[in-house]
Every structure is written in structure tokens, then in C-alpha cells.
Specification:
276 residues, 12 strands, 2 domains, alpha/beta, Rossmann fold, single chain
Length: 276
């Protein structure tokens, strides 16, 4: 019996719950899949993908930090959303040895924020970081009718390059000094798009700016609230969230691309949260 194989690639990857999430999705339809987590090799990621997809039973994979832009160079085609994002988190095997890159991070984040009753209309958003995670969520957030998105990064040039990529007046760039010195209207949502929390680090955003946000969101999740979420709570931010809901949301969208149906997210969310 041939079993369809999937995997998630990242570095680090040991913390990933993706195998359990996708296995649980499959059980909802009494399907059997093989889903593994694989440590990707920095500087040699294409070889990792070559090896995985050499198996004809390998039907797709997820890609997490720091390989979301590397994956773009490997696939044979990109979805329109992936072209605009310049990053992918999902690869689907097509026929004739073709592979399509997709991005489901943005839909996953939007789904989770809506589940938490965040109001996107005319909202001011601050995204911290310029990696593949940030790239993947900008367009889906813009589509929700927000007022503007500010991308902040230690190196303003990189933030400017990312903002220019989207060629939209609603997307602008700044470095931390500029954001921290600003006395303008508070941000409705601050999203940490970096993986800093995995190593216990907090981005250089000022406590003043953080404290004025209506909601603070960290894309990383751990068994305890991340240091970024803890800081926001300490500063009195009423609404905080880690990235578990986004992870499960993007996983569900990936699963639909592979298997043709949207799994039920809520019971999986409850199960994983109990296990953390």
C-alpha cells in the first residue's frame, strides 16, 4: 500500500507540531498519511527538496523559517499570491514532475485574527521583520481593508525593499528608532513576524509603542506565553496571542490544497493547546 508522504522543513524544526496537526486532519476523513518534520540544511535547501520529492509518494511539503524564500527558487511554478509575496510555505506536487509553490501563511493569520474578533477595517498594522513570514501576510492583510501597514526592521533598507516590492501606498517602511520615536496614532495590531521568541529574545520595539497597541500577536508559539507576549501582557495590552492559531489555520489551507477539502480547525486547536 502506497501512503502519501508530506513533511515540514525548517531550521530549527524540533518544536514543530505540524506532523500531529496534519495527521489529525487526515483522521477526520479516516485517511492515512505520512507526515514528518525534517531539519533543512542552510545553504543546501534545494538538495533537501530534491531528496524528499525523489520519492513518487511525496505529494507535498510545508516550509518554515528560514527557507520560505529559498523554496521560491526550487518550484517550477508559483501561485499568483506566492508571486506577489515572493515567499512560499507550501509545495504541491503536480503531474509531469511539476511543483507549485503556494503561500497560506496570510490566510492562516487572517483566519486566526478573525476568530479572535480582530477588526481589520481601517486598522493600523505594524509588522516586525522582513522574512518570508512577513512577506506572506502583507497582501492578505491589505485585502481586509486596513488603513496602512508599517514594516519595521533593524535595517531600514531591507524594510524599504519589502515595502517597495508591494508597490502600494498603504505599505511603508521604518527602522526601530523611527517607530519608537513616533508619537502618532497607536497601532491597532503589532505582529512579531520574526522567530526571536524561539531563542527568548524580544525585538527592539519600545515598551511605549507596545503598550499602546490594541492587540499584540507573536507568530511563534511555545508551551508558555512567549517573551514577546509576556512583555505585552505586563504592559497592560488587553489582547495578546501567540501563533498557534495561525499555524493551524495555514496548515488547514495547505491540507486543502493537497487533499481537496478543508478540515475542521477547532478540535485540533483545542487538542494542541491542551498538549502545550
Amino acid at each position: 500500500m502506497n501512503i502519501d508522504k508530506y513533511a515540514v522543513f525548517g531550521n530549527p524544526i524540533e518544536q514543530s507540531r505540524s506532523p500531529l496537526i496534519h495527521q489529525t486532519f487526515a483522521k477526520q476523513r479516516q485517511e492515512t498519511i505520512d507526515y514528518q518534520k525534517i531539519l533543512g540544511q542552510k545553504g543546501n535547501f534545494s538538495a533537501n527538496l530534491d531528496e524528499f520529492f525523489a520519492d513518487p509518494n511525496a505529494k507535498g511539503c510545508n516550509i518554515t523559517s528560514p527557507f520560505k524564500q529559498d523554496g521560491v527558487k526550487w518550484v517550477t511554478e508559483l501561485s499568483p499570491a506566492a508571486v506577489k509575496a515572493g515567499a512560499i510555505n507550501t509545495i504541491i506536487r503536480l503531474d509531469e514532475n511539476r511543483f507549485r509553490g503556494e503561500t497560506t501563511d496570510g490566510p492562516g493569520l487572517v483566519l486566526d485574527l478573525k476568530h479572535q474578533n480582530f477588526n481589520f477595517e481601517n486598522a493600523r498594522i505594524l509588522l516586525i521583520g522582513v522574512g518570508g513570514a512577513a512577506r506572506g501576510v502583507i497582501l492578505p492583510i491589505l485585502e481586509q481593508g486596513v488603513k496602512d501597514i508599517t514594516i519595521v526592521n533593524r535595517t531600514k533598507q531591507k524594510a524599504t525593499e519589502l515595502a517597495n516590492w508591494f508597490a502600494n501606498d498603504q505599505v511603508c517602511a521604518a527602522d526601530f528608532a523611527e517607530v519608537n520615536a513616533s508619537l502618532s496614532q497607536p497601532f491597532d495590531l503589532i505582529v512579531n513576524c520574526t522567530s526571536a521568541s524561539l531563542s527568548g529574545q524580544v525585538p527592539d520595539i519600545s515598551e511605549y509603542v507596545l503598550s499602546r497597541a490594541n492587540m499584540v500577536y507573536d507568530m511563534v508559539y511555545l508551551s508558555e506565553p512567549t517573551v514577546f507576549v509576556q512583555l505585552a501582557k505586563t504592559l497592560g495590552v488587553a489582547n495578546t496571542s501567540d501563533g498557534l492559531g495561525m499555524l493551524i489555520g495555514q496548515a488547514a489551507h495547505s491540507f486543502k490544497l493537497w487533499r481537496g477539502y478543508m478540515p475542521d480547525i477547532e478540535p485540533v486547536m483545542q487538542q494542541i493547546r491542551r498538549m502545550l
